[in-house]
Design brief:
Shape: globular
Helix content: 10-25%
CATH superfamily of the largest domain: Diaminopimelate Epimerase, Chain A, domain 1
Number of helices: 4
Radius of gyration: 18 Å
CATH class of the largest domain: Alpha Beta
Structural class: alpha+beta
Order of helices and strands: EEHEEEHEEEEEEHEEEHEEEE
CATH architecture of the largest domain: Roll
């Protein structure tokens, strides 16, 4: 029999990942494993693989891999689930965790109901707005220290794009009619646009009012997902910078709601949302 690998399927707003306990198991080739397990017909089916690992300096370390095998810096929905996993599996008894990620250390404050972890508020840090650090290349003729509502041509059509990094790159597009978008067609063209040298996640956003927006997301290396935590944070930042909302906004995704606050005192973005376990299982390598 092939070697068994214990895993837990978890989701935050339908953004689902397979979580593996790296304290007790070793994954030698996580990129290859991510491709296998993410397949919704021949694998477990997920938006990617998350490894929960020991950290030399923090409470825990998180690594995440997309279905195409590429490693992503961070995932807002996944890190909430990491907090729940760490608590539920006795890795830590703390209600506030410091998680090492590819986008730096994030602070996760657990939310409990009846003693059970049901979600978390995550300090996502300060948004990155300098184009070179996102990274993004300003369109020809554009100047300035921000990529703010600049014209980007995709398939012969100009879109006003605001670029933000939350440790990973995002292109935010405000528009009407997001439900009618053919995301499998247009999403990859944004993702691989030459203005984004490391590819980009793309959020298509409708403003409901100054306190609420709706979005669909095309995630780099994954495709359309029901939710994207870092994307919701980028949308909240872009919405405020473009004068469309205040600093506190509810972001409605296809999988549910996230509450985002861009704090004006410390400049950090705070994301609050749910985390849930779907099931535990064994995958044979």
């Amino acid at each position: 029999m092939n070697e068994p690998l214990k895993f837990t399927k978890m989701q935050g707003l339908g953004n689902d990942y397979v979580y593996v306990n790296g304290f007790s198991q070793t994954v030698n080739d996580p990129a290859a494993l991510a491709k296998r397990i993410s397949d919704r017909h021949f694998g477990i089916g997920s938006d990617g693989l998350v490894l929960i690992l020991p950290s030399r300096t923090q409470d825990v370390r998180m690594r995440m891999f997309n279905p195409d095998g590429s490693e992503a810096e961070m995932c807002g929905n996944a890190i909430r689930c990491v907090g729940k996993y760490v608590h539920d599996h006795g890795i830590s008894t703390k209600d506030m965790l410091r998680v090492e990620t590819g986008a730096g250390v994030k602070i996760v404050r657990l939310i409990k109901e009846g003693g059970e972890v049901c979600g978390a508020t995550v300090d996502m840090g300060e948004p990155i707005l300098a184009p070179a650090d996102i990274p993004a290349v300003l369109p020809e003729g554009a100047q300035g220290d921000r990529f703010l509502s600049l014209p980007v041509t995709v398939d012969g059509k100009d879109y006003a794009v605001t670029a933000v990094s939350m440790g990973n790159p995002h292109a935010v597009v405000f528009m009407d009619g997001i439900d009618a978008l053919d995301l499998p067609v247009i999403g990859p063209k944004f993702e691989n646009h030459p203005l984004f040298p490391q590819r980009t996640n793309t959020e298509f956003v409708e403003v409901v009012n100054e306190a609420r927006v709706r979005m669909r997301v095309w995630e780099r290396g994954t495709g359309e997902t029901l939710a994207c935590g870092t994307g919701a944070c980028a949308v909240a930042v872009a919405s405020f910078l473009n004068g469309r909302t205040g600093r506190i906004v509810e972001v409605e995704l296809r999988g549910g709601l996230l509450r985002i606050k861009w704090d004006e005192t410390d400049g950090h973005v705070y994301m609050t949302g749910p985390a849930a376990t779907v099931y535990d299982g064994t995958f044979y390598l």
